């Protein structure tokens, strides 16, 4: 990414930050209070962005521990289910990031909250975008019980057709694409796919203000949070 492009992107992030400060996220379509989201069927993830050494915008990712009961060994964004004491989705995302990778919430400048995604089993996942002004202030400390590895990837890669593949799936008669992004970091190979890939495609589209260079065709159930219903198992 050229210096002029980066300046525009950083300016866009600053604009989104100001919008977030002025306007609280919209309440969910199911009528629950966004400041006190439903416990049990709601989660939040942190899309933590920072400027890399080569001037590109990068996102922090984790590889889940192989001992976990669900989604073991998969790449994910820091985050997890809402707890009773969490004030809102932002607090959930920041708390989980601290627990999983040792990221101090005070280092994160919250930019905005994206529209929720809903999984096939009805879990509402809220992506929270935040930035780190000084990546050197972050000393990763992975929670071994939850996280096997911490790495970062360029956000813009989720708009490119390079190192990407897709498979066609079907849900209740509707066809959609499941995207897979292959990425290598420090001689380790990772696959970023499914919900995590979908969230990052949407975040990159917002930040860079352009659509992906490929057919997205998202799962229809992802948008159910805005349709006053939830997906069936």
Automatic annotation (TrEMBL):
Protein name per Swiss-Prot or TrEMBL: Nudix hydrolase 15, mitochondrial
This protein's UniProt keywords: Hydrolase, Magnesium, Manganese, Metal-binding
Stored InterPro entries: CoAse, NUDIX_hydrolase-like_dom_sf, NUDIX_hydrolase_dom
GO terms, biological process: acyl-CoA metabolic process; coenzyme A biosynthetic process; coenzyme A catabolic process
CDD domains reported in the protein's UniProt record: NUDIX_CoAse_Nudt7
Location of the Nudix hydrolase domain: 40-196
Gene3D superfamilies, A to Z: Nucleoside Triphosphate Pyrophosphohydrolase
GO terms for MF: coenzyme A diphosphatase activity; guanosine-3',5'-bis(diphosphate) 3'-diphosphatase activity; metal ion binding
Organism: Morella rubra
Domain of life: Eukaryota
Cofactors: Mn(2+); Mg(2+)
Keyword check for Chloroplast: no
Statement: the UniProt record of this protein carries the keyword Chloroplast: no
UniProt cross-references to Pfam families, sorted A to Z: NUDIX
Coiled coil (residue ranges): none
GO cellular component terms given for this protein: cytoplasm
PANTHER family: NUDIX HYDROLASE (PTHR12992), NUDIX HYDROLASE 11 (PTHR12992:SF41)
